[in-house]
Structures are given as structure tokens and as C-alpha cells.
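To the team - zinc ion complex, inputs and output below.
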Amino acid sequence: MRLIKRLALRTIRPFSLAISVPLVLAASLASAPTAFAAPADPASAEASASADGPGEDPPLVSPEAVRDLGVSPEASEPEEVGSPTSFAPRASRNTIRLAKYIARSGDTLRAVAYRYFTSPSLLAAVNKLAFGPEADPVLPAGETIQVPIARGSPSGFDQGEQLLPGPGMHMSPNLERKWGRPQVVRLFRQAFTETFKRWPQRHPALIGSLSKAGGGKLGRHKSHRSGQDIDVGYFTREGNRKEWGRPSVKDMDMERTWFLVDYLEQTGHVAAIFMAPDVQKGLYTYAAGRGVKAERLRALFQYGPPGRANGSLIRHSPGHRDHMHIRLWVPEDMPEIRADRAT
Ligand SMILES: [Zn+2]
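Output:
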């Protein structure tokens, strides 16, 4: 296998402005039904339904990683796990460890990344593979790959950035929980700004929790600790959605939801997205109707035709009916990886 040392990562792909789906007419927007009961108090609603909700604790480690790589589902203590390559600096704060995986026939970089809840860009960086936004290189069967796997608590980050209110974002009140790793925060901000630019007349994205400044334990979550996770309310087609709710799938704005998911995914920095099954089905149907290729749909969605062999980027995890949970892993934000490679 040719290992190419130069990485071809770009934060954001160049963007096509050719949007083939006509914008929803203002008249239909005005008459769009409001199908959910908006909670009176966004703070308490978020506390009960989302940011620290009892139902929302997406896994750090994929079932396939448990099955294939021998890691523990909780990923609590790196020493307990399989035979990962360990690396030392700031061990208690490291977010990832490396596990060995032998590539199977037909494995692509994206497929392996999503199967094990890591981002294609980070998988490429760790293995010194070339990778670009449009590329999904095939991994030679039999090749040993280092797969970055999440560690459990404690995890944190030294130099965080706060996601502050801006175009296309409506912030839930807990601004002290809007911290993340710098590239993660910038990429989220950019994605919401781009979404807003295309549909400025539609309501902004409802932004829930990221992490506390510096990370660490956030409520009972195993995630939301390392500055790489965000909760986002589902876009709906009605005009002024500012509070958490459970819109019916038919009232969701799949055009914008797909734009956001597609935009982030094509950067190569998304590691996992958690989404309720019926929402997934709606988004899958929308994407398929837009001509997204079956191969890409298979890599992205857990929902789909039977016979799917491997894990996907978008998955079901309980508690994601009123928001989706997006996890980014940006190599530039992972000092532990750089420390590992320097030795
Ligand atoms: Zn979440």
C-alpha cells in the first residue's frame, strides 16, 4: 500500500451554488402548520428533553468497534482495552486511543471511519493517507490500519472556543455549555452561516449543548465532554421555531437538514450523527429523491434497504427525536495525535 504523507485536507469543500430544488414559496411557508407544542420555558425544556436529557447519551464507541476491535462499550479505561497503541502526554485528558484493524476487501476510508465512530479526516491523518473531500479511497485488504477510538471520561481540551450567537443560530440559554475545540466550533459556525445564507428567511438552527469550557463531565453524558459534540434542533418549515419540540417528520425542513448534513459530511470531519429512525427515513427519502447515489446513501444512513453489512454515519440512538447530535473529529484539534506522530 502506498502511504502518502501529504494530507490533502480542506476545512470546507468549494461549494456549488447550483441548487436544483426550488425554494419553498413564501405562501406555503405562511400556511405551513405548526405541528408541535412548543414548551413554555426553553431552559427547562432543554434540560428535560435535550441537553442533559435522561434519554440522550449517545455512545462513544460503536457496536462494531466492540465486535471487531475488542474495545469495551464504555471505553472507560484505555488500559483495559484490546491492544491499542498507547501514547502518553496528558494521558488523563486524551480523547482518543488507537486500535488496530486489518482492512477487509472493499473497505473504503469513509466506511471504516463511520463504522468505528471516527472521522475520515482523522483516520487518514493517523494513517498518513491522502484524503480529500470528494475522495473515498479504497483500503487494500489485509493492510493494518490504526483506528482512533474514543476514550471515556475524563476527557477535555485545553484551548477551547465558544460558539457565540451569530447568523443562522438561535442559542439555547446555556451559553456556558457552548464550548468546543477551536476547529470544531469554527466548522459548526461556518455550516450554520452557509445554511443561513441560502435560506435567510427561514428560522435559525436551534443550538443546544456542546461542552463546558475545557470540557470534562457534563451532566450524565459520556459524550459532550471533549468539545466535539453538538445538539441541534431539527429544522422545520414553520417560521419561528425557537424552542425544543418534536415536529412531525412531514413538517421538517429536509432541504436544509440535508444541506447541513451533506455540508459537514463532505468536509471529512464528521465522526457520527445520531438521529431518530423516522427522521432518518425522511431525510433518506429526501436525499434519494435528490439523486444522491445509493453507495453514498449506504455509507451515510443506517436506514435503508436490507442487507447492509456495515455501520453508517447516521444512526439511531435513543433520545434524538427532538434534536440531532453531531460529533466532529478534526485532526488539527487533536494534540494527542500530533504527540503520537512526533515520537
Ligand atoms: Zn447530544
